[in-house]
Model the fold of this input.
Amino acid sequence: MKLFPQLISEAPEEYGGRVRVLPPEVAHRIAAGEVIERPASAVKELVENALDAGASRVEIEIESGGVALIRVRDDGSGMSPEDAKKSVGRHATSKISSAEDLARVVSLGFRGEALHAISSVSALSLTTREAGADPATCVRVLAGGLPERSLAARPVGTTVEVRDLFMNLPVRRGFLGTERAETNAVATVVEALALSRPEAGFFLRADGRGLLALPASADLRERVAQVHGLSLARSLVPLDEVGGPVWGFVSPLSVSFPTRRYLHVAVNGRVVDTDSFAPAVAKAYADLLPKGRHPAAFLRLELGPGEVDVNVHPAKSAVRLRGGRSAYPLVVGAIRGALAPEREEGGAGPAAEGESELRPIGQFAGRCILAEVGEELIILDQHGVHERILYEKLLKNVRGTPANLPVPAVVRPPVDLAPEVWNFEVELEALGFRLEPFGGGAVRLLAAPESVADPEGGFLGALEALAGGEDLAKALACRGSTKFGESLTQEQMVSLLREWSATEFKEICPHGRPIAKRMSLPDLLREFGRI
Ligand SMILES: Nc1ncnc2c1ncn2[C@@H]1O[C@H](COP(=O)(O)OP(=O)(O)OP(=O)(O)O)[C@@H](O)[C@H]1O
Ligand SMILES: [Mg+2]
Done:
């Protein structure tokens, strides 16, 4: 279940060709009461109301996973007695008044639906006081009944108390998770909202125990430190698109995680479902992280209020950039820009002025190239080096120039792949392979792309990738590269290192494995006890 809206794109091919159709359970769920699916959805609405009211401190208390009690207390603007009574009615909102306003929503709420929805499935009491008014007002509603107003006492701000959630919907209650699961869902929502508003303080208590204490922080990095710990926050790299629409922080290449837990996105201050951004973030790190690892990304998209359409769906389950604009290239570009210095750093290439050229010292164990640059010793995985070069060439142009083989090679594809050769003949030819049948399922390879060092391996790799629908460039680069254990001449090493120095992502092979290991002379001397 999604608690935050998805960012939907009008250019679905940008998301890797997966057209997103809103799930039917969302598309059909347009009745008012349906916006509250579980305690965490009520907490989200109440905290958003507090933030819309300009609160600088929001205190949340829950009992029994939020089913027995949710209490949200803020120090925001509060409401007048009249507004307080009206606020629990359907379509009652102070945030927009006309259809035109809908096009420029700057607040988190805009439908005038949330309090009504919550009060129709619980015992709700709202105590509020605005500046200059005394005493405060209390409004009570029992399961959608008529609101009752009374006098109360409290400082400026609002407290909403929701007891016995889904009291009149026993089936809904039956669908809830364990208390622990519901409590966790509440904590996740509060964390996400807190990340979108570092300047406000958020405090969550569950069954009398403090779960989150996030005092107002100076900026996003400090808030990340409060939520996810100092070491992650410190490692983050800023996206320094000054004045650009995307800013925030991402993890460096050296820091990655087995889950996408550290992904957080807000569009114009509104938290959006991270699934909408996962493809763009993944693309920005493509081939830079080992398989199964994910980066951390805390992204902010700041666009004019007229550029984001929040009224895509009555359940506020989607937002969209106007004019068919896609956030995808903005996000990929901003992240790639932030990673660029890290990619270049220690790139060991001849690129930097005054830096001496990377010079091969020799080969080690037929698998590694030892090289030096300035006062640094570099040990390179020769297969990875070649793979990276080939991969980047193939990415630019997967079509290859055929080079005739001095002696045609007979290749025997595995039985299951043999019939595929002739299905993909056109594609194989376009890559630069020239072939003819040899009989018994074998093929005679007459020419191979000139960039491929191992024609037979490259051919089989390409065939496998074509038949399996894999990344052709990656497969071809891997199978067509210099093998471990292959001896290289000095000239071959020089040209390999020169080409490698010019690649964009030097440090990691297309499968995400590191390519180079470095040791500086001072470090070595320190190890030898010389300094
Ligand atoms: N914590 C609060 N402090 C001050 N005013 C509040 C607070 N909560 C609600 N209100 C007032 O009550 C109105 C109704 O709130 P409600 O959440 O039902 O609707 P909304 O926020 O306008 O829209 P949405 O349904 O999209 O959340 C708000 O427009 C606001 O004026
Ligand atoms: Mg609201």
Summary: Confidence is low (pLDDT under 50) at residues 10-33, 346-356. The pocket of adenosine-5'-triphosphate (ligand 1) is lined by residues 45, 49-50, 52-53, 74, 76-79, 87, 92-95, 109-116, 158, 316 (CB under 6 Å). The radius of gyration is 30 Å. The chain has three domains: 31-216, 223-342, 359-520.
